[in-house]
Amino acid sequence: MEMFIIPLGTCNCPYETVAPGVNDGQLVKLPVPSYLVKLDDGKNLLIDTGMSRLHITDPDATWRGTELAEILVPEMAPEDNLAVRLQELEVRPTDIDYVINTHLHFDHAGNNDLFERAKFFVQREHYDFARGNATFPNQYWNLPKLDYELLDGESELFPGVEVLLTPGHAPAHQSVMVRLQETGNVVVCGDAIYTQENLDFDSWGSQADPETAKISGEKLKRIAVEESATLLFGHDPAQAKQFHRSPQSYR
């Protein structure tokens, strides 16, 4: 297998929205990634689809007229269009066979509409919670043309690719283990862990369910030790500088 970390701009917000009690009052540019995994059978898998490309020309496209417009401010360049990033890898939206959404927030499912040919994997409990819920903008993912396979718990979806239940950020949030032959095991945490600071400072207060989020964070930390796995946090600016981005890859 081969995995690419795809940069899709930043979401600029107050620090306390990700790690309360650490740098409150400061602003932080949170990297927003997607992940392309080329499976051993030649199929293409995406993990999360980032923020909608609409934000390139209209940063207020999602939250205009709401309180969140002042808190979550997307910043995307033209090249941060997911279709453009995939084209750099000679992959078209129609070449994507599968998409795993860790969850359906606007910065993780914002380009689902691009992938009409793909099968999407989401936890059933999460899908039911997000459907019709304005905090999970349905215009990006709740579309008749998209094919969702709803999951009920943890499973190995493909050889070397497993979903792990990590609720707390949202009901039935899921993280994804990818077992790479050369790099080793990596876990795409989604928003189960925003940044390293959540672990270092035991800072979970910005999560929807802080107690459950802490349990999930500790679960991933334990898995990292037991499986010798690298945790790829959801939006860690420091970590984003440590790992190379597409078109470079990990195998």
Q: Secondary structure elements and their pairing?
A:
Elements lengths: L1 E13 L12 E12 L5 E4 L25 E3 L6 H7 L9 E3 L18 E5 H7 L16 E5 L3 E4 L2 E5 L8 E7 L3 E5 L7 H5 L9 H17 L3 E3 L4 H6 L9
Parallel strand pairs: 3-5, 5-6, 6-7, 11-12
Antiparallel strand pairs: 1-2, 1-4, 2-3, 8-9, 9-10, 10-11
Low-pLDDT residue spans: none
Count of separate DSSP helical elements: 5
Structural class from helices and strands? alpha/beta
Q: Report the CATH architecture.
A: 4-Layer Sandwich
The CATH class assignment is Alpha Beta
Helices and strands, in order, run as EEEEHEEHEEEEEHHEH
Largest sheet: 7 strands, mixed
| Shape assignment | globular
- Roughly how many Å apart are the termini? 6 Å
Helix content: 10-25%
CATH fold type:
Metallo-beta-lactamase, Chain A
Task: Give the neighbour order of strands across the main sheet.
Answer: 4-1-2-3-5-6-7
Task: Give me a quick take on this structure.
With 251 residues, the protein is an alpha/beta fold.
What does this structure look like?
- It is a single chain.
- The protein is an alpha/beta fold.
- The chain has a single domain, classed as Metallo-beta-lactamase, Chain A (4-Layer Sandwich).
- It is 17% helix and 27% strand.
- The protein contains five helices and twelve strands.
- It has helices spanning 82-88, 124-130, 196-200, 210-226, 237-242, and strands at 2-14, 27-38, 44-47, 73-75, 98-100, 119-123, 147-151, 155-158, 161-165, 174-180, 184-188, 230-232.
- It has a seven-stranded mixed β-sheet with strand order 4-1-2-3-5-6-7.
- The longest helix has 17 residues, at 210-226.
- The termini are close together.
- The mean pLDDT is 97.
